[in-house]
Automatic annotation (TrEMBL):
It comes from the Bacteria. Belongs to the SbcD family. It holds the Pfam family Metallophos. Residues 1-199 form the Calcineurin-like phosphoesterase domain. The lineage of its organism: Bacteria, Bacillati, Actinomycetota, Actinomycetes, Mycobacteriales. It comes from Mycolicibacterium doricum. This is Nuclease SbcCD subunit D. Signal peptide: none annotated.
């Protein structure tokens, strides 16, 4: 038996830093990843698809977003099982119980709306642990495992949330206890645990049967989210008493969120950064966060600003990583000697240079004024 394990679609997700039309393209890409699951399911001959929580970004979605999402799910030609997670719990405002969702839900879509067993077919069951609020007071997965028998039925757990082995917040009541999960696996009550919440593809523990699929499309920078953009293809041998499991991943995601750190201390470093940004592919689907450190002259800082301004128009987003950025700007000796000004103007430039070499807000203003002066001089020379 083969099925697809995915999670954290978070349809309707927004990213405030995306440029102009990049946000609609990003939203469309998340729906396109859902459609791509259908092609993969057909190619892999998967029997069904499980989505282990956070199908939607939240419960307050626009009608258009709900309808477009359901239409994407309709294209998947096999049964699709959706688990409510912490972003879209089965609370009073749940999208899953809304009139629009109920009216337009495709026939292949089933919401795992109650904890415990859901029969796929004779001999095969899903054991669901849906979220009913954003703050559960117990281990929801552990709760549904408690009384399961080892009776020869193949069972797949579908859960959502952090596992105590890898989550630093050990005080959280809703943490999934890995020991409880592995005990159920060992006694043969369940045979695979499909998890959502962690957006990076992750094999949990040592059994090879507990996995986070990660989000099928990137949601955060690569120093935070290390292995997203995949779906898991899971095989369970139902003819084997041990129900041997084989897991492989297929890449679906096309977007990248890249953190780029560089030291920039002269014009050569600025040119090198320019080349690195130029060589990055798929700029329309790439978000870059820059962490730059170093010391530049006013001229080189102006060149850096022009470089970043150019690429901010090409990438889906190009942002400054405030925590990783520290550039000192200091006028070099003689940097403004060849401007061709004299008298009062020359004295004003000298005063700005002196102020720029000091500290404080006045120094920042002076550096900005000198950079503007350089740009104006360069434009007049071109004209």
């Amino acid at each position: 038996m083969r099925f697809l394990h995915t999670a954290d679609w978070q349809l309707g997700m927004t990213r405030h830093f995306l440029n102009g039309e990049a946000q609609p393209r990003y939203s469309a890409a998340r729906r396109e990843a859902v459609v791509a699951l259908g092609a993969l399911a057909a190619q892999a001959k998967a029997e069904f698809v499980v989505v282990a929580g956070d199908v939607f970004e939240h419960n307050q979605l626009s009608p258009r977003e709900v309808s477009q999402s359901l239409e994407a799910m309709r294209t998947i030609g096999v049964p699709l099982y959706l688990l409510p997670g912490n972003h879209d719990p089965l609370d009073a405002s749940s999208v899953y119980t809304s009139a629009l969702f109920t009216a337009e839900r495709p026939d292949n879509v089933t919401v795992l709306d109650h904890p415990g067993v859901h029969t796929v077919r004779p001999g095969l069951e899903l054991v669901a642990a849906p979220w009913r609020s954003k703050a559960p007071t117990s281990d929801l997965v552990g709760d549904v495992l408690a009384d399961l028998p080892a009776d020869g039925v193949t069972r797949i757990v579908v859960g959502h949330g952090a596992v105590d082995l890898i989550d630093p917040g050990k005080e959280k009541a809703a943490l999934i206890g890995l020991a409880t999960v592995e005990a159920a696996l060992t006694r043969g009550a369940v045979h695979y645990v499909a998890l959502g919440d962690k957006h990076s593809r992750t094999d949990v523990g040592a059994t090879g049967r507990v996995w986070y699929s990660g989000s099928p499309e990137a949601t955060n920078y690569d120093d935070i989210e290390t292995d997203s953009g995949h779906v898991l293809v899971v095989d369970i041998d139902e003819d084997d008493d041990l129900r041997r499991v084989r897991v492989r991943s297929e890449r679906l995601g096309r977007w990248r969120f890249v953190t780029l750190t560089r030291s920039v201390d002269d014009s050569r470093d600025v040119a090198d950064l320019d080349l690195n940004l130029d060589l990055m592919p798929d700029k329309e689907r790439t978000v870059v966060r820059l962490g730059l450190t170093g010391s530049l002259t006013v001229t080189d800082k102006a060149a850096l600003d022009e470089c970043l301004h150019k690429y901010s128009r090409l990438f889906a987003a190009l942002t400054e990583w405030e925590r990783g950025t520290d550039i000192a700007v200091l006028p070099a000796d003689g940097e403004f000697d060849d401007l061709g000004v004299g008298g009062f103007a020359a004295a004003a430039v000298d005063e700005l240079v002196e102020a720029a070499r000091a500290d404080g807000d006045r120094a920042e203003d002076a550096r900005a004024a000198l950079a503007l002066l350089l740009r104006l001089v360069e434009r007049s020379e071109v004209a």
